[in-house]
TrEMBL record:
It comes from the Bacteria. This is SCO family protein. Residues 178-203 are annotated as: Disordered. SUPFAM superfamilies: Thioredoxin-like. InterPro entries: SCO1/SenC, Thioredoxin-like_sf. Belongs to the SCO1/2 family.
């Protein structure tokens, strides 16, 4: 059997995003780029179980989850990256997700400290040195959501505590629009003719 020489499909920022191994709150292993970013529209935020009691970002994102409705887990995915992987194990994150009624399509991700720091550095500009349980305002990564469509290389950011409707609106900005079907049609004003010219003069 002949193996295909076609390279695997990659998005515009494949060389920028690390394809590191992470684990979700269901104890599922995934490659960050290949399994979670490529060919998906995503919303990504940083969190920790301990910090969520100080700054209830998850409560705001629960409203985003509800507004996305059936799109969540189908064409839009939400990822919450812990900044405290030593304490936020998959088991702890599972209990946290269950407590808040998190639905399929929203994954809480953890990994080694090195992996989570690498992801945080690539996705967010932050001051570093933020310890869980201290003032989250000192860390920009805790106050922003990155949203993106890696298939076409569209990325942006919005505040984690923005109105849920505003956050969901950002998803519309990166959603591909259906291409019109049929032959091209002329746009703009009608060609000037004696007939429609007369109507304009009489108007």
């Amino acid at each position: 059997m002949t193996e295909s020489c076609t390279p695997p499909r990659r998005g515009p920022y494949a060389d920028y995003f690390p394809n590191v191994i992470v684990y979700d709150h269901e104890h599922q292993k995934a490659r960050f780029y290949d399994d979670l970013l490529l060919d998906r529209m995503v919303l990504i935020n940083c969190m920790s179980v301990q910090d969520d009691a100080v700054r209830p970002v998850t409560q705001n994102l629960l409203q985003v989850q509800n507004l996305l409705g059936h799109r969540l887990g189908r064409d839009v995915f939400m990822y919450s990256l812990t900044i405290d992987p030593e304490r936020d194990t998959p088991t702890v994150l599972r209990a946290f997700a269950d407590h808040h009624g998190v639905k399929p399509g929203w994954q809480f991700l953890t990994g080694t400290s090195e992996v989570m720091t690498t992801l945080r550095d690539r996705l967010f500009a932050h001051s570093g040195g933020h310890a869980p349980g201290t003032n989250p305002e000192s860390d920009c990564s805790m106050g922003m959501i990155r949203y993106g469509n890696e298939s076409v290389g569209l990325w942006g950011s919005v505040a984690t505590l923005a109105k849920p409707e505003q956050i969901v609106q950002r998803v519309a900005w990166i959603t591909p629009r259906a291409q019109p079907e049929g032959a091209p049609r002329r746009s703009g004003p009608l060609p000037l003719t004696s007939e429609n010219f007369g109507h304009r003069v009489n108007a």
